[in-house]
Amino acid sequence: MSDIWERIADLLEKKLAPGAYQLWVKPLRGKLENGALVLHAPNEFVRNHVQLRLQEEIMEAAGEVLSCTPRISFLCEHGPAPVLALADNTVQTRTVSRQMSLPVAHALPTQSVQSWRHQFDDFVVGPCNSLAYAASRGFCQELPGSDQLFLCSAPGLGKTHLTQAIGAEIARQSNRRHLRICYLSGEEFASQLVMSIKSRTVDQFKERFRSGVDLLMLEDVHFFQGKEKMQDELLNILKSLQNKGRRVVMTSTFLPKELSDIDPGLLSRFAQGFLAVMDKPDSATRLNIIQAKSRVAQVHIPNDVAALLADRIRSDIRQLESCLKNIILKARLLNTDISMDLAWEILQNYDLDSPSIDLERVISFVCQAYGFGLEELRSKSRKRDRVMARNTAFYLARKHTELSLADIGRRFNRKHSTVIKGIAAVEQEVARKTALGNQLSHTISQMQV
Ligand SMILES: Nc1ncnc2c1ncn2[C@@H]1O[C@H](COP(=O)(O)OP(=O)(O)OP(=O)(O)O)[C@@H](O)[C@H]1O
């Protein structure tokens, strides 16, 4: 079948500038495999250039030779994974191929339908992300007012996961197979724009986004801070997409209002749709994530190990996941059980949070510091030293735990209004720097986090 490629290449020789043909098309080897045109480039540089710049021309030439437009895979002789030109590898009609090829040429290199890495099913929902999850689901169902979604969180808390889940879900819905999805990061957008400026193809670059995209998924838009030229182009593209009723998902590590050096018009576009913020997971969600990930790995994680991980890696799910994977891998390599010792060894390689403080730790600290037992703290006694000890416990519990005032009060046999008064009394003494206040400050600072 390689003579097919020779015919396509001959056609390209006639259509392209001689230099372009010699440089980019001549080194390619091509053949038809299962209805797809598979092109091998000698290296990644050539492959990327051909995929980015010549895909349309190749598609057209192939269409003329074959009387239908085939799917194209771009492979690299020394490279790893194939890069599919189409998001949908089912029905291959000329229209579908042409439509799909435009945005995907500018998408992340490996985003074919099969390569969405994350789904809704493997996203663990907790209080920290339930709104973002619901909004992402709503976006897929085209709920009224869900044309644009802005997902925001600190790094490693699931923005990419949800964005990819949206892409996977929409690409999966049979009635949306024709939809042209463009998924890329702010940085990729910028580098493609720079390349198009260098090759004087900015108009084509803009046109691809304006007319070739039904759903734009743009990650890490905080990248645009301070990049004026990029912001102009993005603003125009967003305006055009929004005017045409096209849908947009964006992610950012910062809220629109926290971004600096961004054109106000662009900021206002960022804030135009639904803004969903994800927080750090609470301990129950962290445990659920550990359990879900170990289920996928088909490994049993002992409860004490799960509790240790959930306690010491609290603010970044990516780190939590990576630590868990390393523990599982090490246990497999050493052919040993997953134990606390093994977990501790792996944990040393991570940036750990301090052990969290729960109410029982607060109680035992206060009892030790003041020389009372819990029953004396819970008693009705209004003796000054007991009141101070109790108030210190209220204050520390409020500071270090996520418990409500009512929960704290319950443990000490007190109403939540008493807890408020106790905390205020401690704060007042400390602020006034009285002798008692200084003593309280010292005691409070001894509670090691
Ligand atoms: N709620 C969750 N349930 C299951 N896995 C999650 C959840 N949140 C995050 N993860 C996992 O944590 C890892 C990091 O998540 P993700 O890449 O989506 O974070 P991000 O917010 O996009 O980070 P960054 O800002 O650094 O790009 C991924 O492997 C993802 O699957």
Molecular structure report:
- The chain contains 20 helices and nine strands.
- The N and C termini lie far apart (69 Å).
- It has a five-stranded parallel beta sheet with strand order 6-7-8-5-9, with helices on both faces. A four-stranded mixed beta sheet has the order 1-2-3-4.
- Residues 79-114 have low confidence and may be disordered.
- It has four domains: 4-76, DnaA, N-terminal domain (GMP Synthetase, Chain A, domain 3); 120-277, P-loop containing nucleotide triphosphate hydrolases (Rossmann fold), CATH 3.40.50; 283-348, Orthogonal Bundle (Helicase, Ruva Protein, domain 3); 359-447, Chromosomal Replication Initiator Protein Dnaa, Chain: A (Orthogonal Bundle), CATH 1.10.1750.
- The protein is α/β, with parallel strands linked by helices and 449 residues long.
- Bound molecules: adenosine-5'-triphosphate.
- Adenosine-5'-triphosphate binds at residues 118, 122-124, 129, 153, 155-161, 253, 289, 317-318, 321.
- Adenosine-5'-triphosphate binds next to helix 6 and helix 13.
- Belongs to the DnaA family.
- ATP binds at residues 156, 158-160.
- It is found in: Cytoplasm.
- This is Chromosomal replication initiator protein DnaA.
